[in-house]
Amino acid sequence: MEFVTGVKKKETLELSELLEEGRIGTEVKVNGAIHTIRDMGTIAFIILRKREGLVQCVYEEDISKFDLKDVKEADTVEVTGVLVESAKAPNGIEIRLGELKILSEPAEPMPLPIAKWKLNTSLEAKLNYRPISLRNIRERAKFRIQEGIVRGFRDFLYKEGFTEIHTPKIGAKSAEGGANLFRLEYFHRPAILQQSPQFYKQMMVGVFDRVFETAPVFRAEKHNTKRHLNEYTSLDFEMGYIDGFEDIMAMETGFLQYTMELLKKEYARELQILNIEVPKTDNIPAVRFDEIKRLVSEKYDRKIKNPFDLEPEEETLISRYAKEEWDADFVFVTHYPSKKRPFYAMDDPEDPTYTLSFDLLFRGMEITTGGQRIHDYHELLAKMEKRGMTDEGMEQYLSAFKHGMPPHGGLGIGMERLTMKMMNEDNVRETILFPRDLSRLEP
Amino acid sequence: MEFVTGVKKKETLELSELLEEGRIGTEVKVNGAIHTIRDMGTIAFIILRKREGLVQCVYEEDISKFDLKDVKEADTVEVTGVLVESAKAPNGIEIRLGELKILSEPAEPMPLPIAKWKLNTSLEAKLNYRPISLRNIRERAKFRIQEGIVRGFRDFLYKEGFTEIHTPKIGAKSAEGGANLFRLEYFHRPAILQQSPQFYKQMMVGVFDRVFETAPVFRAEKHNTKRHLNEYTSLDFEMGYIDGFEDIMAMETGFLQYTMELLKKEYARELQILNIEVPKTDNIPAVRFDEIKRLVSEKYDRKIKNPFDLEPEEETLISRYAKEEWDADFVFVTHYPSKKRPFYAMDDPEDPTYTLSFDLLFRGMEITTGGQRIHDYHELLAKMEKRGMTDEGMEQYLSAFKHGMPPHGGLGIGMERLTMKMMNEDNVRETILFPRDLSRLEP
Predict the structure, then answer these.
(1) Which single residue of B2, B111, B209, B231 could bond A51 by disulfide (Cβ 3.0 to 4.6 Å)?
(2) Burial of A42 (0-12, 13-18, 19+ CB in 10 A)
(3) What is the mean pLDDT of residues B19-31?
């Protein structure tokens, strides 16, 4: 028997430790994967890939105590050597190699040139070799930024008094949803995968006042577009005691402001690798659905085809308008038509053909849908009846309202879409580790 | 068009703001749900439930400017009044009510006495009325502690250089797993729900060195016990460049140490509500599987029935032994027999019938399985062949190894089980918001 007492400092150093003051001129021990080797004859540059970035090591025939021929790309190694300054090396440092120990070896050479700065490979090839293509420095940096977005969402909401919840993804069939649900058998009973934590987060507003969840959602939509995924991560929150849906937009703006600062502070390296400037979030315009439709139609001389919904092209034009007129990357579109919103959306008492709801557009794409919900039991029943819905599978949801719910509202943010637009990608598959779409079920 | 500029401070105060210095004697505005009303004739105590706790309000016939008859339990309200000290009230304060505005009303009275301190109701009834039973102060406190556990997991791992990942839950059928998988149809192709992010997190070690995920997993096990769920949240991490599986146990110990401090600091209120003392985590004993089996068998005079696995009763005895002999709530059991571990577990070179793996037991129950994994491609293929496995559906997983993987290992922690044992509950359904088991698919 031995006691485990916690994490012990290792002898091997990470990149940020190599960059600490006082390291230059000392012997250091470092591990990593061999990203690339440039053999110049009597010397060679061996670049190690570490989680924080690249470290240049120099092999010198007279000094290094190993045979360069024994080393190849994709080996993982542990090296020792003297740390020196080097203006041309990544981060301005390099290691003059003494010893090198091989920890593991690949069985075959790389199928993709991952050591290139830009992986000029088709999206298809990148996805077919996902565990390999992500080893490219720029590819993996995208997912560090994505981490920062989710982390910012949670940290901001903790600070604002929200409680994190974990709700089930397998559920019973209900009167809501329908065609877009994946179906499965659950111990001889029909079940579905949840397309949103909507009902659960609303029920939990009655318990914790403010809740959030960051979890997968499942949509069996047969869309094969650059913006749709059949499984994605949804950043959801729901909050009680609101004065109006404006409180939800204010909270989302607060999240964006907090997160952009977090990215600048904690993910500066990755922002630089991807050459990204964070968008402005201090003033986000909010404009009515019917008004912006009219404004865009006038300015860009485009006929309004569907007065009840936004077409993708219209979303692009609204963002263009917001950029041109208000210098804004984000724009809230408010008061969506009631017939296009789910039954639980609160209708505008001033004109019930519209709802107290909004979408947030970011650089031409909807990344959020949110709004105020109906909180009165009888009102909710009446709206369900008006839509010809039964309460099948919704008994528990309705019971929360039957026994009292505060005025509340919330939203859902598509994590991959927000990441995609942050880095100006044009396909959402670029910003999900392992996409699920009509044709992709693997890896 | 208007600009949204972020979160604005509301006039209404939260509990922690009421407790700030200088508030006593001032008029305050507060909202909340009416948890309970005690009518004493000319005065009445109206207790508000807020997210941070209970606030006592006093109705006085002569002073309060509303009719007590208009107010009932489960109304949500906004009140104004003078804040005064009151030794007997929760948190030592109460509000002498002036005005009261009703924000929403229930349609029916409560089906459960949620205002009682201990909800003396069967687990069955609590689960049948889940959105209501969780409004009980003690019930909801459990899930605040659960939030702290997950938050501690993430914050500790960020600090240790891990990257958070989001991996797909729908996947193709593979040679691993089998009977315990939920099956579904994915656009006319057979698919499964992932029982673990194992393959994905290993692949991502080749990219980020250290990764974690906190997400649902799905197990179609037909166990109907107090410790099994068919959907639960798994706290997973995987790390590269380890010297041995001891590094994994050290990291888990570090997580537990960090999290217990976080709970004491940020969740003290909930620890107090539930009367919980956090377990000691400074020294966690680690003992070999075969050795602890023998020790327990000798000390408690119990015959070893199955030398390859631990029965639930044995887990209880091992924890009892650890408590009696080492004053430990947690105990690592190491070197599990190879035949009981999955193919990717690394066998102990000194005796390949055992593996370089471990379970962590906490107060009589396994809450973690972890260990070192095979990182060499040929070794992995050989072990699969030995077990008669094909590489069907595992081509991408294997390709990560083919193209080089560092020595690595990791673990998975059952969030609900860890929460359950923290609060000395005896059924895991007590510590999940909406359990999924053989009979429960709703709410």
Answers:
(1) B209
(2) exposed
(3) 97
- Tell me the β-bridge partners of B214: B235
From the number of C-beta atoms within 10 Å of its C-beta (0-12, 13-18, 19+), residue B191 rates as: buried
Check whether residue B90 and residue B149 sit in a common domain.
no
Write down which residue in A104, A126, A160 finishes a domain: A104
- C-alpha A131/C-alpha B205 separation (Å) is 9
Residues A86 and A40 in one domain: yes
Strands of A163-164's sheet, edge to edge? A163-164, A210-218, A231-240, A408-414, A365-373, A357-362, A330-334, A284-288, B2-4
Task: Answer yes or no: do B86 and B146 share one domain.
Answer: no
B393 is a domain residue? yes
B112 three-state secondary structure: coil
Q: For residue A177, how far is the Cα from the chain centroid?
A: 25
Answer yes or no: is B443 within a domain. no
Q: Does residue B236 have a pLDDT over 90?
A: yes
* Residues A307-334: tens digit of each pLDDT: 899 988 999 999 999 999 999 999 999 9
Query: Which residue from B285, B296, B427 is spatially nearest to B358, judged by alpha carbons?
Result: B285
DSSP B241: S
The enclosing domain of A78 has a CATH number of 2.40.50.140
Q: B83 vs A253, B20, B29, B90, CA distance in Å?
A: 33, 11, 10, 13
Task: Report how far residue B119's alpha carbon sits from residue B344's, in angstroms, rounded to the nearest whole number.
Answer: 46
Identify whether A437 is part of a domain.
no
How many folded domains does chain B comprise? Answer: 2
Shared domain for B89 and B153, answered yes or no, is: no
Residue A187 lies in a domain: yes
Q: Are B99 and B155 found together in one domain?
A: no
The CATH number given to whatever domain includes residue B273 is: 3.30.930.10
Least CB–CB distance from A402: residue in B12, B107, B158: B107
For the residues B431-443, what does the mean pLDDT come to? 95
- Please identify every stretch of chain A with a pLDDT value under 50, giving residue numbers as ranges: none
Q: Which of A51, A80, A104 is the last residue of a domain?
A: A104
Q: How far apart are CA A229 and CA B168, in angstroms?
A: 11
Per-residue burial over B13-44, b if 16 or more Cβ lie within 10 Å, else e, is: bbbeebbeeeeeeeebbbbbbbbbbeeeeebb
pLDDT of residue A391: 86
Q: Are residues A77 and A145 in the same domain?
A: no
Question: Rounded to a whole number, what is the largest CA-CA distance in chain B?
Answer: 85
- Between CA A406 and CA A242 the distance in angstroms is 8
Going by the DSSP 8-state scheme, the letter that residue B337 receives in this structure is B
Nearest to B266 by CA among B147, B353, B108: B147
Domain that holds residue A347: 137-431
Using a CB-CB distance cutoff of 8 angstroms, which residues of chain A are in contact with residue B185? 182-183
What residue of A is the nearest CA neighbor of B402?
A107
Cβ contact B108–A403 (<8 Å): yes
Q: What is the ipTM of this complex?
A: 0.97
Q: Which residues of A touch B402 (CB under 8 A)?
A: 106-108
Which pLDDT value is given to residue A179?
72
One domain for residues B227 and B336: yes
CA distance, residue A261 to nearest chain B CA (Å): 14
